[in-house]
Design goal:
Structural class of chain A: mainly alpha
Shape of chain A: globular
Number of strands of chain B: 10
Structural class of chain B: alpha+beta
CATH topology of the largest domain in chain B: Immunoglobulin-like
Largest sheet of chain A: 2 strands, antiparallel
Number of domains of chain A: 1
CATH class of chain A: Mainly Alpha
Number of domains of chain B: 3
Number of helices of chain B: 7
Largest sheet of chain B: 5 strands, mixed
CATH architecture of chain A: Up-down Bundle
Number of strands of chain A: 2
CATH class of the largest domain in chain B: Mainly Beta
Number of helices of chain A: 16
CATH topology of chain A: Cytochrome C Oxidase, Chain A
Helix content of chain A: 55-70%
CATH architecture of the largest domain in chain B: Sandwich
Helix content of chain B: 40-55%
Strand order of the largest sheet of chain B: 3-2-1-5-8
CATH superfamily of chain A: Cytochrome c oxidase-like, subunit I domain
Strand content of chain A: under 5%
CATH superfamily of the largest domain in chain B: Cupredoxins -  blue copper proteins
Oligomer: heterodimer
């Protein structure tokens, strides 16, 4: 075309696609897609958080009547589904999108258009889930696990169908995203960046992506069987016609447990990036951290049965899953010990990203240890399906994943937007959430031991049940205050935040070599990589040559 | 704040405060608690070690007056330490695992007992009530009567047209799911007493209200109860239990609740219509009595007729 010769730069873009809004709607730039992912996930985080506040309000005192029965079950179901499928998994995809090409010295993801498709499928899946509140019979209400036959033969509303549709769409989104990450990381690393010189966050995204690619088809199959049972007269999970409800649980947890590691590994990757930078030391045991990531990724496929100890599996199966679940604690422990050793003799600065990373270690440790109780299956018989499990999973996915994610937001915000988030508000945000988190979730361990099941909309017991539930509810609102401070921080930083420069934290990895924010092409030139810390190598060379 | 924490701590110590499982009253529950305590000790030590090291390092190696980008020693790792903190957790976990396996037979398997010293009760989970079938064919709903100091084996089931429930008596051992199309087993051996039980797996809108009571009574009282119940299989006592635990979970006599008010419902006295609804369900109401015997239906009608005559209707 003639016009192409006349306007040499980015001429393949027609005018309408260069508008302020349309350029975002049509973007295939990994950085913009990453930011879209992150912002969308934060909106869903707010929605899922509001649902959580509803749950806590209802449980604040005995025999409360704020959201009860069917509505409560809808709220619980959509809260869980939101936080897992619309917040943690996609926000990690957002970090991966933004950072992987920058960290490995690539100009974009391997398949930019597929990347945009992943994002828009995610938006579609989220919209379906939230619009399902308007469906006949309300939203899905059989829990984020949607056990059959409750979800198949006993959930006549359309909400369950829309839940299935939403997850089908989200599955496609993550599958495409996973393939994209695997191909990008495998093929597009800068010259000199061998596997053992790759940033730990990129390693964690590689495992995240491989696991998504391997387990999502299982979820899709389970969802399809569920849909067929509901509408096509099949009986996969219907015991009256020879089907098995336990089949559903096997299929679901074969996906569901790797999913937990899908949500935690990249958060561990973020923590592994932050701690060395703010301790001014290299990560202790780089190889051990890499191998533990890979080991967790592999072992994650062998532990699903520990969600099914109360099903009445044969003792030998229970025993196998107990041992495998304990084995996976070992590489997890290796990570924690290596982070501690990285702090040892460091020069530790407590900027906000570091606070979240330290909080991650403190809280994830608790989540890991409570997991040992649940792995020991006779003890699990007493604890499973109670608030103890709710406490455990929130220490892992909130104290773990979300703390890592917030650390990552504070750490990379200056790279994404060119301005550093306000440190004073950031620390206030952190302390409100840290204190509120522990108030909310620690008492749930005790509630579970006292006999409070999860997913009940009410209880009549007074005494300690009432005390702990009230403390938990107060804690949830303390966290909510922290989140409001975060929003204020974002708004204030956007208006008058301090300019960041390329490398505000004196970091180690290649993304800080680009400007903040980076140009669409990322780098003008990329140095040859000789270690996992190319930026430090560069700073030392410049210092040596007297140019810094 | 400190005073508050002390008060709470005091209150917590008075019971076990939720730091230990509910006080056990059955050998399997005792052994579960033993395993719990062992894990609590090991994880407690690890917790103190890890969090202690974290806090110590954070304080000891804070930047203080050093320049921001002054580097710490560039230590890249230590194979010896990596081996140490791989092997040590393996040893600890092996210890925990061994102890669990040592306790396991006493938790999973009921002790050998002569036929006279044991009984088997079938526990049936339904939306949203628990029904108990005794060896002589007697039935109770909502309250299980069990003989004291005898091995009580429980067959835990749910009918094929129902959903998954989970049977849990916190003081008498762990949970076992009631799964349609499957029979699971558990047991207890408890002194006389009244124990709370409930469903612990989300089973629908009234899951939170799917409660039961386990009334452990002297063996002679147990025998007397089940023979009386078998003799009066369609008696008003069973009918009242059925009404309180099956109907009243979703219905009130004087107002709408989950379902419509029953106060002026002609079905209270109309056996055929009531039976149809119980056996087949209607609208959102599940077929709560799909597998009930005719005697059970009769028992319910006997009781509901008293309601229609102006009885209080509140579950006793």
């Amino acid at each position: 075309m003639a016009s192409r010769a006349e306007t040499p730069t980015l001429s393949y873009r027609s005018d309408w696609r260069r508008g302020r809004v349309t350029s975002w709607l049509t973007t295939v730039d990994h950085k913009r897609i990453g930011i879209l992912y992150i912002c969308t996930a934060l909106v869903f985080f707010a929605a899922g958080g509001l649902l959580a506040l509803l749950i806590r309000s209802q449980l604040a005192t005995p025999d409360e009547s704020i959201v009860t029965r069917g509505s409560y079950n809808e709220v619980v179901t959509i809260h869980g589904t939101t936080m897992i499928f619309l917040v943690i998994v996609p926000i990690l995809a957002g970090f991966g999108n933004y950072l992987v090409p920058l960290m490995i010295g690539a100009r974009d993801m391997a398949f930019p258009r597929l990347n945009a498709l992943s994002y828009w499928l995610y938006v579609l899946g989220g919209a379906i889930l939230y619009l399902s509140f308007l469906a006949k019979g309300g939203a899905a209400s059989s829990g984020w696990t949607s056990y059959a036959p409750l979800s198949t033969l006993h959930s006549p509303g359309r909400g369950e169908d829309l839940w299935i549709l939403s997850l089908h769409v989200l599955t496609l989104s993550s599958l495409a995203g996973g393939v994209n990450f695997v191909v990008t990381i495998t093929n597009m690393r800068a010259r000199g960046m061998t596997w053992m010189r790759m940033p730990l966050f990129v390693w964690s995204i590689l495992l995240y992506a491989w696991m998504l690619v391997l387990v999502l088809p299982t979820l899709s199959a389970g969802l399809t069987m569920m849909l067929l049972d509901r509408h096509a007269g099949t009986h996969f999970f219907d015991p009256a016609h020879g089907g098995s409800p336990i089949l559903y649980q096997n299929v679901f947890w074969f996906f569901g447990h790797p999913e937990v590691y899908i949500m935690i590994l990249p958060a561990m990757g973020i923590v592994s990036e932050i701690i060395p930078v703010f301790a001014r030391k290299p990560i202790f045991g780089y190889k051990a951290v890499v191998f533990s990531t890979v080991a967790i990724g592999l072992l994650a496929f062998l532990v699903w049965g520990h969600h099914m100890f109360a099903v009445g599996l044969p003792t030998r199966l229970d025993s196998f899953f107990m041992v495998s679940s304990m084995v996976i604690a070992v590489p997890t422990g290796v990570k924690i010990f290596n982070w501690l050793a990285t702090l040892w003799r460091g020069n530790i600065s407590f900027d906000t990203p570091m606070l979240w990373a330290i909080g991650f270690i403190a809280l994830f440790t608790i989540g890991g240890l409570s997991g040992i109780f649940l792995a020991a299956f006779p003890v699990d018989w007493e604890l499973t399906q109670t608030d103890f499990v709710v406490a455990h999973l929130h220490y892992v996915l909130f104290g773990g994943s979300m703390f890592g994610i917030f650390g990552g937001l504070y750490y990379w915000w200056p790279k994404m937007f060119g301005r550093i988030l306000d440190e004073r508000l950031g620390k206030l945000h952190y302390w409100f959430v840290f204190v509120g988190f522990n108030l909310t979730f620690f008492p749930m361990h005790m509630l579970g031991l006292l006999g409070m099941p999860r997913r009940v909309y009410t209880y009549s017991e007074g005494g300690l049940w009432e005390t702990y539930n009230l403390i938990s509810t107060i804690g949830s609102f303390v966290m909510a205050v922290g989140m409001i401070i975060f929003v204020v921080n974002i708004v204030r930083t956007a208006r008058s935040g301090r300019r960041a420069g390329n490398d505000p934290w004196h970091a180690d990895t290649l993304e800080w070599y680009a400007t903040s924010p980076p140009p669409p092409w990322n780098f003008d030139r990329i140095p040859y990589i000789i270690s996992p810390r190319p930026l430090r190598d560069l700073r030392r060379r410049l210092a040596h040559e007297g140019r810094l | 704040m400190c005073a508050g924490a002390l008060t709470l701590g005091g209150a917590a110590l008075a019971g076990n405060g939720g730091f230990l499982p509910v006080a056990p009253h059955s050998p399997n529950a005792h052994r579960i608690k033993d395993a719990y305590v062992l894990i609590l000790i090991f994880t407690g030590v690890i917790f103190v070690g890890v969090e202690g090291a974290l806090v110590a390092f954070v304080i000891r190696y804070r930047r203080g007056k050093r320049p921001r980008d002054a580097e710490g020693p560039q230590i890249h790792g230590s194979s010896r330490l990596e081996v140490l903190w791989t092997v040590l957790p393996v040893v600890i976990l092996a210890a925990i695992g061994s102890y669990v396996f040592y306790k396991l037979p006493g938790i999973a398997n009921p002790p050998a007992a002569s036929a006279a010293d044991q009984t088997t009760i079938t526990v049936e989970g339904r939306q949203f009530y628990w029904m108990f079938r005794y060896p002589n064919g007697a039935i109770s709903v909502g309250t299980m009567i069990a003989p004291a100091n005898e091995v009580v084996r429980e067959n835990v089931v749910s009918p094929a047209n129902d959903v998954i429930h989970s049977w849990w008596i916190p003081a008498l051992g762990g949970k076992i799911d009631a799964i349609p199309g499957r029979t699971n087993h558990t047991w207890f051996e408890a002194p006389a007493g009244v124990y709370a039980a409930r469903c612990s797996d989300l089973c629908g809108i009234q899951h939170a209200k799917m409660l039961a009571t386990v009334d452990v009574v002297p063996a002679s009282s147990y025998e007397a109860f089940i023979s009386a119940r078998a003799r009066a299989a369609s008696g008003i006592a069973l009918g009242k239990e059925e009404y309180s635990h099956v109907c009243a979970t979703c219905h009130r006599l004087d107002s709408n609740y989950v379902g419509p008010s029953l106060g002026s419902d002609p079905l209270l006295t109309e056996a055929t219509g009531l039976e149809t609804i119980l056996r087949q369900g209607v609208g959102n109401m599940p077929a709560v009595g799909s597998d009930w015997s005719n005697a059970q239906i009769e028992a319910l009608v006997t009781y509901t007729k008293t309601l229609a005559k102006g009885g209080s209707g509140e579950p006793g």
